[in-house]
Write a structure and sequence with these properties.
By secondary structure, the protein is α+β, with helices and mostly antiparallel strands. It has a single domain, classed as Sandwich (Jelly Rolls). Helix content is about 20%, strand content about 35%. It is built from three helices and eight strands, in the order H-E-E-H-E-E-E-E-E-E-H. The strands form two sheets. The protein has a six-stranded mixed β-sheet. Strands 4-7 form a two-stranded antiparallel ribbon. A hairpin with a 5-residue loop joins strand 5 and strand 6. The longest helix is centred in the N-terminal third of the chain and has 18 residues. The protein is globular and about 35 Å long. The two termini are about 25 Å apart.
């Protein structure tokens, strides 16, 4: 039964990616489905979740890099608290910085990962705690 559920989940992800815009994908965190916006170009990464007045509970942004390295994020022009989830190339969580507040005054603080990451997932602040996400957990998504 567990394998059947996993297969159905994987097929749902594949089909949602085929029919959604190329700038979004679906991921599953626990039993919850998330729509995540993809930030792959330098412009998309620089803009991130800036100027968003609200972030839905099951929405996020996935930053994609070509290699693993120490990643720095900041909250310039970001209006809501965010969780920063750093993932290695195996999509394993290597670090989580919870409930990062918006930057209200320059210079804005940079939040740099302590371990190398290929992906950074941003979710609504404290969402990762509510989902009980921990270092070592793997997140499944298809790009």
């Amino acid at each position: 039964m567990k394998n059947k559920i996993l297969l159905i989940t994987m097929l749902a992800i594949v089909f949602s990616n085929l029919f959604s815009g190329s700038g979004f994908t679906t991921i599953f965190l626990g039993d919850e489905e998330f729509v995540v916006e993809i930030a792959e170009t330098n412009r998309e990464k620089a803009l991130g979740l800036m100027y968003r007045k609200e972030i839905p509970d099951n929405f996020g942004m996935l930053f994609i890099y070509s290699n693993e390295d120490f990643r720095g994020m900041w909250m310039k022009n970001t209006l809501v608290n965010l969780d920063l989830i750093f993932l290695n190339s195996q999509k394993e969580i290597v670090e989580i910085i919870h409930n990062v507040p918006p930057c209200v005054k320059d210079p804005c603080k940079s939040y740099i990962s302590e371990k190398k990451a290929k992906y950074v997932l941003e979710l609504k602040g404290n969402r990762s705690k509510k989902l009980n996400l921990n270092e070592g957990d793997r997140i499944f998504f298809i790009l």
